[in-house]
Amino acid sequence: MTGRIAALFAALAAASGAAFGQSVVTVTPENPQGWSIEANAGGYGALAAFGPALNESADGFRTPTGLDLGRGAFYASCRYAGQSGSEYDKTPSTVWLGLDWHNGRSLTGIALNRITSLRYWSFVSKIPTRHGGNPSLWDSWTWWRYPKQPVTVTLTIEKADGSDRRQLWYRPWGATVKGDDLNEKAIGKWQYFNCLTQGRWLLLPDYDGNPSLSFENWNQVLTAYGSYRLVATSDVPWSQGGWKSPGWKGSTIPTGNPRCTGTGKALNLMVGARFYTFRWPGESTSTAWWPESVGFRGHVDHFSLGIDGVEVTYNFEPGHNDPGPDLLYTSQRSLPHPIFQLPAVQQDHRFKISGRVVERANPYFSIDDGTGLSMPTRVYWMNNTAAVGQFWEVWGFIERPRFTTVSTPFIVWTDPGHCRRVQ
Q1: Which stretches in the chain have pLDDT values below 70?
Q2: What pLDDT, on the 0 to 100 scale, is given for residue 6?
Q3: ω before 254 within 30° of 0 (cis)?
């Protein structure tokens, strides 16, 4: 009985992302604790109190296990870059959160086989980023597609003598390292990833003739590269002889190499395809890479790293003087105004609208507040309880679908807990 109780406590600790005896360090803009943020090609990253966890989840910054993540988390977003034009235009958005100092010492020279824990909590927005069929049929929601991976961990390593530099990417989603863009059960909620016991790892190719490789688990990584060490931080851009760059090759903006990182640091929490195509392990030709993260919005928090059994958990929080987004009523007439659609406006505020239900379907209902908008605003809530003629108020993230050029209504992306019938 005593053994079973002990095992139960151990399982609960793992599920909550906490470990007995671990230390928790709060990371803020005022005190980054060795972390730095870089973004490229329209990407955006911040320690923030806003984002999809606040708009699309009733629990906000609290996990399904009840773990309170604080007032915010690290937020990352990618734009619709890197799809068309000349090869020099095909640089997708990337966002990097890098670390080179941990538990009072540099990460430089730490061998992979000394890493004893590596895990984090992740949230990916449920707002679709692409359409798998005809984009003109934008409301065919069964064809909606989503990012193929959440924010993931990257490790840049080399042999002890400084040769054979390589880069590993953690891949938690999908049946292969390619990932999957049908992740309806994984989006719109906090997910826990243990990088040493879940998911796969991808070894990036390089220009020395080494192809990409797939590892089914961390043990396979250790068998091949366990003695390899985390590289030293490089503050010098690739174009000047260093290793700091989000770029992938000579034709990306900026120029780079698969073994570079956007922060120049060995350990990164990162999202984004670094070029518009990629040759996956075992394949003879390159295929589109940009759909992996185009339009991405998501979070990371409570990232835990253990070395030689000593673990530190990093709690990402907004600035001390950041009050977080306020909640404002708005009319549907104001939604088309360009100012409303500026990212900063939706980050600083949460918007609430109300009106009479004029259309109802199983995945959504439409409300009209009488201000004369040609298309009533839709509220996406699967299996909703609204009925035509009722009055409702809702708040969330409001925008038109981003993956089509046809005329569409505005949509409130929200959670049922943010919807209330007005009697």
Answers
A1: 1-21, 85-89
A2: 37
A3: yes
Cα gap 240→422, rounded to integer Å: 62
CA distance 383 to 387: 12
β 287-288/297-307 pair status: unpaired
Q: Are the CB atoms for 74 and 53 separated by under 8 Å? A: no
Question: Which residues, including other chains, have CB under 8 Å from residue 296's CB and lie 6 or more apart?
Answer: 76, 77, 78, 93, 124, 125, 129, 147, 271, 272
58: region left, alpha or beta (phi > 0 left; psi from -120 to 50 alpha): alpha
Per the structure block, which two tokens stand in for 4?
């079973």
- Element at 8 (helix H, strand E): helix 2-15
The superfamily (CATH) of domain 326-422 is Nucleic acid-binding proteins (2.40.50.140)
Task: At 341, give phi and psi (nearest 5°).
Answer: -90, 0
Q: Where are the domains of the chain?
A: 16-316, 326-422
pLDDT tens digit sequence for 312-330:
999 999 999 999 999 999 9
The runs of H, that is alpha helices, within 271-411 are 343-348
pTM (whole model) above 0.70: yes
Consecutive H or E run containing 81: none
C-alpha triplet 181, 187, 189: angle, nearest 5° = 165
Check: CB of residue 203 under 8 Å from CB of residue 167: yes
On whether the CB atoms of residues 273 and 92 are closer than 8 A, the answer is yes
The candidate with the shortest Cα–Cα distance to 226, out of 215, 210, 238, 235, is 215
pLDDT score, position 88? 59
Of 171, 297, 158, 309, which Cα lies nearest the Cα of 229?
158
- Cα separation of 113 and 226, whole Å? 5
